[in-house]
C-alpha cells in the first residue's frame, strides 16, 4: 500500500517538476544581469530548485566517451558483456591495442545505481581495462525472473569474473565487500582459473561489531520480522516488476537524508544563492551530485533482508558461519589473491576496523600479501570518490595491482 501511494504521488508531481524545470530554463534566457531582472532571477532559481528536487528511478549515464592516455584521447565504448535480469557486466572498452590490467568494480546494490561510482571508474580508466556490475532496478525485473538474495549476488560475482577471465583484479565498494570476499573464497577453494589476482575491499561491512555506527545500531534496533513487515513493499502492478517484493529505494534515500537533513537543507539554500549570484561552477557541481543522489533503485526484498540479518545482526562472515547454497564460506582458503582493505577516518557508515577485519579472516595469506590503508580526513564517499581517492587511495590500489600481476 505504501508503494502504491508513493507511486501515485510521483505520477502526480513529475509533470509539475518538469514544467517548473522547463519554465526556469526559458526564463533564464531573459536575465540580462541588470538590477531590474534580479526578481526574475530569484523566481527562476526557485523554479529550478523545485524542478530538480524529485526522486527518479532512471539510471543516469556514466558519460564516458574518451579517456586521455599518454598524449592522446582514446575512445570509450560501453559494451555489455553478459547480462541476467538482475544485472549486466558492463565493459568500458577502449579503442586501443595495448593490454591493460583487467579489473571488475563491484558496485553496491544499496539503493543507488552503479553510476554512483563514476568517480571511482574515472580514476581507474587511464591505466586499467575496467568492467563494472551494472545492477538492474528491482522494480523493473519481472517476478518470473525469480528471487535474488545473497547467494545469487555471489553467483553473479563469480560468473562475471569468469566472463572477464584469468588474471583480473576485483574491487568492491561498500556493501558488496561481504559477497565479494565470499565469492573469492569459493573460487579459491575450487581452484577456479578466474580467481582474481588481487581483491580490494573499500569501506565494506565485513565485521560490523567493530566501531559500530548509527547505521549499524539502527539495523539492530528491530527484529528481521519488523524490517520485513515495515520496510518491504510490493511493486505496483503497472510497472514492469509489478508484484515483486522490494525494499524501495525512495524509502532508503529518505532515511539517509533524514540522518543529515540539516546538511541537505543547507546545500539547497546555498544552491539558491549560487543560482541568484550566477556562480555557474558551484551550481553545476550541486546539480551533478543531486542528479545522481536522487536517482534511486529498489532492492530485491530477499537480498535486503538477508543482508540486514546475516551481515548486520548475526555477523555470519565474521564469525565463520556464512554459507553459500549450504556450503561453508572459508576465507582462509584464499591463498593466492593479494588483499587490500581501505577505510575512511571519518566514515559514519562503515566504522574503522569493519573492513580491515577481512585481513584476519584471510588467514591463509602470508603477511606480504595483505595490506591496509586508513585514509585520513575521508568520510564514506571520500574513500572511493573525489580528491583523496584520486591522490592518496588509488596509488595504493595501483601498487597492489602491479605487485599482484608481477
Describe the SSE topology.
Elements: H1 2-28, H2 38-51, E1 66-69, E2 72-84, E3 87-94, E4 102-106, H3 118-124, E5 129-135, H4 150-164, E6 169-173, H5 177-189, E7 198-202, H6 214-219, H7 224-231, E8 233-234, E9 245-247, H8 249-259, H9 261-277, H10 280-293, E10 299-300, H11 301-313, E11 323-324, E12 327-328, E13 338-344, H12 357-361, E14 370-375, H13 387-405
Parallel strand pairs: 4-5, 4-6, 6-7, 7-13, 13-14
Antiparallel strand pairs: 1-2, 2-3, 3-5, 8-9, 9-10, 11-12
Helix pairs in contact: 1-2, 2-9, 4-5, 9-10
Structure description:
It is a single chain. The chain is an alpha/beta fold. The chain folds into 2 domains: 85 residues, no CATH class; 260 residues, Alpha/Beta hydrolase fold, catalytic domain (Rossmann fold, 3-Layer(aba) Sandwich), CATH 3.40.50. The chain is 42% helix and 17% strand. It contains 13 helices and 14 strands. The strands form 3 sheets. The protein has a 9-stranded mixed β-sheet, sandwiched between helices. Helix 4 crosses helix 5. It is globular, with a radius of gyration of 22 Å. The chain starts with a helix and ends with a helix.
Which characteristics define this entry?
406 residues; alpha/beta; Rossmann fold; 2 domains; 9-stranded mixed beta sheet; 3-stranded antiparallel beta sheet; 42% helix; 17% strand; Polyhydroxyalkanoate depolymerase; AB_hydrolase_fold; PHB_depoly_PhaZ
Amino acid at each position: 500500500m505504501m508503494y502504491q501511494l508513493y507511486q501515485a504521488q510521483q505520477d502526480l508531481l513529475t509533470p509539475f517538476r518538469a514544467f517548473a524545470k522547463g519554465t526556469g530554463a526559458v526564463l533564464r534566457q531573459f536575465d540580462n544581469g541588470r538590477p531590474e531582472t534580479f526578481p526574475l532571477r530569484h523566481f527562476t532559481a526557485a523554479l529550478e530548485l523545485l524542478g530538480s528536487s524529485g526522486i527518479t528511478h532512471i539510471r543516469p549515464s556514466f558519460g564516458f566517451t574518451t579517456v586521455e592516455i599518454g598524449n592522446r584521447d582514446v575512445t570509450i565504448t560501453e559494451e555489455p558483456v553478459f547480462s541476467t535480469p538482475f544485472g549486466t557486466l558492463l565493459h568500458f572498452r577502449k579503442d586501443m591495442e595495448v593490454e591493460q590490467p583487467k579489473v571488475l568494480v563491484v558496485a553496491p546494490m544499496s539503493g543507488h545505481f552503479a553510476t554512483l561510482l563514476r568517480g571511482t571508474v574515472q580514476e581507474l580508466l587511464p591505466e586499467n581495462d575496467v568492467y563494472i556490475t551494472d545492477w538492474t532496478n528491482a522494480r523493473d525485473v519481472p517476478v518470473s525472473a525469480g528471487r535474488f538474495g545473497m547467494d545469487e549476488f555471489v553467483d553473479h560475482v563469480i560468473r562475471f569474473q569468469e566472463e572477464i577471465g584469468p588474471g583480473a583484479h576485483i574491487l568492491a565498494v561498500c556493501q558488496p565487500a561481504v559477497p565479494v570476499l565470499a565469492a573469492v573464497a569459493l573460487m579459491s577453494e575450487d581452484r577456479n582459473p578466474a580467481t582474481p589476482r588481487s581483491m580490494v575491499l573499500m569501506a565494506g561491512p565485513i565485521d560490523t561489531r567493530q566501531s559500530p555506527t548509527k547505521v549499524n545500531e539502527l539495523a539492530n534496533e528491530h527484529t528481521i520480522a519488523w524490517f520485513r513487515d515495515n520496510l518491504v513493499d510490493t511493486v505496483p502492478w503497472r510497472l514492469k516488476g509489478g508484484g515483486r517484493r522490494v525494499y524501495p529505494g525512495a524509502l532508503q534515500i529518505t532515511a539517509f537524508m533524514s540522518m543529515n537533513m540539516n546538511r541537505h537543507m543547507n546545500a539547497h539554500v546555498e544552491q539558491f544563492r549560487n543560482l541568484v549570484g550566477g556562480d555557474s561552477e558551484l551550481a553545476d557541481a550541486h546539480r551533478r551530485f543531486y542528479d545522481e543522489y536522487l536517482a534511486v533503485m529498489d532492492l530485491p526484498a530477499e537480498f535486503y533482508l538477508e543482508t540486514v540479518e546475516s551481515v548486520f545482526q548475526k555477523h555470519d562472515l565474521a564469525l565463520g558461519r556464512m554459507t553459500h547454497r549450504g556450503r561453508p564460506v572459508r576465507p582462509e582458503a584464499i591463498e593466492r589473491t593479494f588483499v587490500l582493505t581501505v577505510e575512511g577516518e571519518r566514515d559514519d557508515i562503515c566504522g574503522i576496523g569493519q573492513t580491515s577485519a577481512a585481513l584476519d579472516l584471510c588467514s591463509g595469506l602470508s603477511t606480504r600479501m595483505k595490506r591496509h590503508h586508513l585514509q585520513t580526513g575521508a568520510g564514506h564517499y571520500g574513500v572511493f570518490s573525489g580528491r583523496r581517492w584520486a591522490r592518496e587511495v588509488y596509488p595504493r590500489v595501483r601498487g597492489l595491482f602491479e605487485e599482484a600481476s608481477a
